[in-house]
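Hi D.,

Good news: the full-assembly prediction came through. Inputs first.
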Amino acid sequence: MKYRGELLRINLTDKKIIKEKLKADIFSNNLWGRGYASKLLLDEMDPAVDPLSPENKLIFALGPFAGTPLPATSRMMVVTKGALNGLIASSNVGGYFPFELQHAGYTMIVIEGKADNPVYIWINDETVEIRDASHLWGKTTSEVNTLLKDETHPEAKTLEIGPGGEKLSRIAAVIIDAHRAAGRTGVGAVMGSKNLKAIAVRGTRGVSVMSNERLKNYLTKIYERVKKSGGVTMFRTYGTTRTVRAINSIGAFPTYNHKDGFFEDYLLIDGENVNKEILVRNGSCAGCPIACNRISKVYWNGEEYVGGGPEYETLWAFGGQTGISDLHTVTYAHFLANEYGFDGISLGSTIAALMDLFESGIIGEDNLPFPVKFGDAEAMINLIHLAAKREGIGDLIAEGSYELTKHFGHPEFSMSVKKQELPAYDPRGVKGMGLAYATSNRGGCHVRAFTVTEEVYNTDDPEYRLKYADKALIVKQLQDKQAVVDSLGICSFARTIYNADDFSEMLKVTWDIDLNPEELLKCGERIWNVERLFNVRAGFTREHDTLPERLFKEAIKTGPSKGEIYDKREFEKLLLEYYQLRGWDENGVPREKKLKELGII
Amino acid sequence: MKVLTINTEKCTGCKLCELACSFVKAGSFNPLNSAIKIYYFDKNLEFVPLVCTQCRDAYCVKVCPTGSLYRNPETGVVEYNKALCIMCKQCMMACPWGSIKLNLTSDAMIKCDHCGGDPECVKYCLQRALLYVDVEDAVYFKQRETATKYLRGE
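Then the structure:
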């Protein structure tokens, strides 16, 4: 079998580096990427460990098609016990590093232990070294990217943490190539806790498949489809930025820390304006023909900044959620989040929670270096700088909105599920997203079951998004499907390219692996249950599967979803229905029968 | 006669040209076996693909002692016959742009030959940064864009 699939295990405590073959009995049941890594974590680690202790493991996992031209298949999952909330974390990222890692010959890296002093890892094909990184400590991500290329190879690709991860901010991200983020769940803090500043990789071993002819035929077919895809054209033209208009137009664009679901100034931060005002050109992840990346140029205080972004989520977090409509400020905040190594969603929403506390009179100017009102661009940028230094109020911002609002005695001001800040789809205006947030295995997150497509676009009923019926089944099915997509290293945006049968065909034409669509979906369900079992063992249960009280109590005030709340009784009903569909008990614990059926125990 | 043109403003750095070239020429995906290469400039996130320009009076042909490199009179493309190559690497030294290089296993030179008139890289360049066009059309689109800008007063 030509399929190489090597795993690189690096223990930072005793500096041991081991290369292992990927195990067929794991990938044929749990697939690769997120699935394989989650299984390793459940098998090898006590789910109750402190996420910032040396006992936690940090896994970087690719799919089986990484490094090939199969469209949008070189994504990487960062899997660990998350620092933000102690759930099993998997944070997805693209860019060049994942592609380069596969070309160096590795499908996964497992980091264990903790280094005594700051280190970085240099992977040059077969040669793997742990090197001193004391000169890199304190540096921002773009500085690290430049310095590492100088001292390794100019063609090397990098993965790094910024001051956020070093200072163990619970909302710290792992940054790739200085411009892309594995943002969510505090994976950057886990990396920081291991004293691991960066990984640089150079890969020249390439990727060979079983049958060139079969793959060539498939590539010809799939690229014809890519060329004709309207979805691809949309992503290429606007990236994710035009979602501002789409979601605001249904009144599900959370604003002012979820006090409302509609933004009057939405056109200023929407995709059309991004293209007109700040877009320089498109960028791509390696091996992807979609090219959805934005490369933008903005001005702040007379200085010019060029960087990757913005995305829909950051346009919202630093825009609608904080009430700021200046595109340059919002995009500059996105750039700063990457420079310092923060998750943009959590950082923006945490600042919004602080603004909310201030405007509600819960905290006054004595707690703050300056007033922090909604819509204050200068204040937001200064708060980001403070968070990176963990100085004054910045020290609390770095802990995320839950810890910050709890510190001031009002955790209900945190728009989070299981401490993770909710993304930019207001569940009051798209009911399925509420259950998706409440049951996501990593806390408040939109990419485990993106119900918006089903509830808004694939229906003739404009009111369907506001109904509760069917939503439990939709969420369950999407979660299983997405687990497959993530575990094959495929980008979520490729949903506009691939059909259900494609993944099986791709496994066949590349590695001669037989897994039919039903078997793949079963793997998806298995992966979901492995993650849930990890979370149950980490102490999570039904009481954590809920939404912020504000969404149950306060109605959206303006726009097309005006008057909508999330009905709590309907929510409880949905949750129980969801547990039943999953084969879990009324506390959300997978029943033994289900775990046996899936072969997990 | 056809030429392979590059528009750096449209390149998004996706590496598909490199993958396509290495796959068709060397049978596996490896940018180091590709005749086309993208250079990355991190500061402003710029991408510049480079490939052989098929010189009319080519240094590589001049220095080749065995006739392994020769200009196809019909297409104007400088082609490479591996059977005649003695691997002296003089072509690599002579090319002022670095357009000829050794393959990964050091048993052949990598030389762009437009895939015999149907370049694989162009097929995968969905951003249309790479185009394979008749020589008389090579600047047509570029000039038309300039004309459009004049019209808009930019």
